[in-house]
Automatic annotation (TrEMBL):
Superkingdom per UniProt: Bacteria
InterPro entries: CheY-like_superfamily, Homeodomain-like_sf, HTH_AraC, HTH_AraC-typ_CS, Sig_transdc_resp-reg_receiver, Tscrpt_reg_AraC-type_HTH
GO biological process: phosphorelay signal transduction system
SMART domains in the cross-refs: HTH_ARAC, REC
Gene3D superfamilies referenced in this protein's UniProt entry, alphabetically: 3.40.50.2300, Homeodomain-like
The protein's name: Chemotaxis protein CheY
Organism the protein comes from: Paenibacillus terrae
Transcription regulation recorded as keyword: yes
Domain HTH araC/xylS-type: 418-516
């Protein structure tokens, strides 16, 4: 069989890339899609390792466009042919790429199977190293092509005998590995290293198993396992070992194993839906090395949305402790509801930060610093790698908000308390109690009583008696006014009660106090 012509597709639109990949069973016509990239920079990295014969590239792309990519490819890889995809309005770009030596171009609006195949065949015949012929393929669909079709969501007919040859056992499962984008080069294991490590460990533990690496995103790796059910325990133990070892070296790496399935065609559903969902649960289980559906705890049932209306009412009434306690209870419950996506959880926290900032600002609290910092909180919460970090950020924000609340409360309390004390001193001789005082300052008497006790060293009655006794002592020292007259002058209608209060405060009766002072 003659060598197939390898193709790399470069386009920032995934639908265009997928459309080209699945136009035809390319192997039947002597072609093979070896990779795809979303911009010129990604394409150059792939070209170095894949060494395709033909690059199909869009013109307008972010980071590095098709014109620059074409120039670099023609300069550094003169044996690679370039075909340009363009729209009608990009004629100047197309003309400049032709000056760089592109083989051909195709208008995107007219992109169809026949034209694409003809352009590729014309271009392939220019490549002497492969001696392309239209029947270069052996008209057999390879298992790689079948798998790529299935995981991309396309249906495909394939030879069952080929399936049995490639995967002789009755059970299938997918293994997913997700890594954070490395900060430094070499900080994370490439997918090929993970595959080699997994293969060595699994094949040492099991005799009847097939592992195959599947296409995946840059910071992820997906492996297909075909195994005999009798070796399930050994297989799982080996996978768990590798996951735990990787986790120790790279704490942000997470592994997941899908459910077992017998029907090979179910791979599409598991690859596209079930495995990504399982990997997304890592946000709620950052310390778990390997996630499996049947090992997860039962998710906590939580109301679909936070009662923001009630929260707002509590905030407006300045019932901050109640409002924040309700919020913390809801967030704690949501942090165990792993079926909610990380995006939904982070959006909840971001909305809370925003609403608290607005509410406190409207209520006259000094929110300049927090208002300026809220965007930093939004970004930090959005970047939080796991639920515990996101909750910690919310708690930090609530602490800062509480500081502003406390600052104003203390400031306001000091001013209010001063007014109360001044009023009591000025009106001590009048009929003064919590009810009359509350009416003047528009306070509920029971609230005023607790407020006075909380913000002063004495209660209201103790302080009023102290002021009246001090005024009575001045009168006792300054003249010959009768004790009965002094009693009514400082606010006591009953002289005997006045005598009792005076003795309690000073340790003397009014007459004893006067004699001691005169003596």
């Amino acid at each position: 069989m003659k060598e197939l012509c390898n193709i790399l597709i470069v386009d920032d639109e995934i639908l265009v890339r997928q459309g080209i990949k699945h136009h035809l069973s390319w192997e039947q016509y002597g072609f093979r899609i070896v990779g795809e990239a979303s911009n010129g920079k990604e394409a150059l990295e792939l070209i170095e390792t894949l060494r395709p014969h033909i690059v199909i590239t869009d013109i307008v792309m972010p980071i590095m466009d098709g014109e620059e990519l074409t120039r670099i490819v023609r300069q550094n890889y003169p044996d690679i042919e370039v075909i340009v995809l363009s729209s009608y309005g990009e004629f100047n770009y197309v003309r400049s790429t032709f000056q760089q030596g592109v083989a051909d171009y195709i208008l995107k609006p007219k992109l169809d199977t026949d034209e694409l195949l003809q352009v590729l065949q014309r271009t392939a015949r220019k490549i002497p190293s492969i001696q392309y012929q239209a029947d270069a393929g052996d008209n057999r669909i390879t298992m790689d092509h079948v798998i790529e079709k299935l995981i991309s969501g396309y249906s495909i007919d394939y030879d069952m005998e080929l399936l049995k040859q490639e995967f002789p056992y009755v059970r299938f499962a997918l293994i997913g590995v997700e890594q954070v984008e490395p900060q430094r080069k070499g900080q994370s294991h490439p997918a090929s290293d993970l595959f080699s490590k997994l293969t060595d460990r699994v094949t040492s533990a099991c005799e009847q198993i097939v592992l195959r690496r599947l296409p995946s995103d840059a910071n992820a790796a997906v492996f297909l396992a075909n195994l005999d059910p009798r070796e399930l325990h050994s297989w799982m133990a080996a996978v768990r070992e590798v996951a735990q070892e990787t986790k120790q070296v790279e704490p942000q790496t997470g592994w997941a194993v899908s459910r077992l399935f017998d029907d090979f065609n179910q791979m599409s559903e598991v690859y596209q839906d079930e495995l990504p969902k399982l990997l997304s649960y890592r946000f709620y289980f950052p310390g778990t090395a390997l996630l499996m559906e049947d090992e997860l705890p039962k998710p906590v049932q939580v109301n679909s949305s936070f009662n923001l209306k009630q929260f707002t009412e509590e905030m407006k009434r300045e019932h901050f402790d109640t409002a924040f306690q309700d919020l913390r209870s809801y967030v704690a419950a949501m942090s165990h509801n792993y079926t909610s996506t990380a995006f939904e959880f982070k959006s909840l926290l971001g909305n809370i930060v925003f609403n608290i900032t607005i509410l406190l600002g409207n209520q006259g609290y000094d929110m300049k610093e927090l208002d300026a910092a809220k965007y930093s909180y939004f970004k930090a919460i959005n970047d939080a790698p796991h639920v515990h970090e996101a909750v910690r950020l919310l708690e930090t924000f609530l602490d800062e908000a509480n500081m502003q609340i406390l600052a104003k409360t203390q400031q306001g309390s000091s001013a209010s308390m001063k007014k109360l004390l001044e009023y009591i001193e000025e009106h001590h001789a009048e009929t003064l109690n919590l009810t009359t005082l509350g009416q003047y300052f528009h306070f509920n008497p029971s609230y005023l009583s607790s407020y006075f006790t909380a913000h002063h060293t004495e209660g209201f009655s103790e302080y009023l008696n102290k002021i009246r006794v001090e005024k009575a002592a001045e009168l006792l020292r300054s003249g010959t006014m009768s004790i009965s007259d002094i009693s009514s002058t400082v606010g006591y209608s009953d002289p005997s009660y006045f005598t009792k209060v005076f003795r309690k405060v000073t340790g003397y009766s009014p007459s004893q106090y006067r004699r001691e002072y005169l003596h």
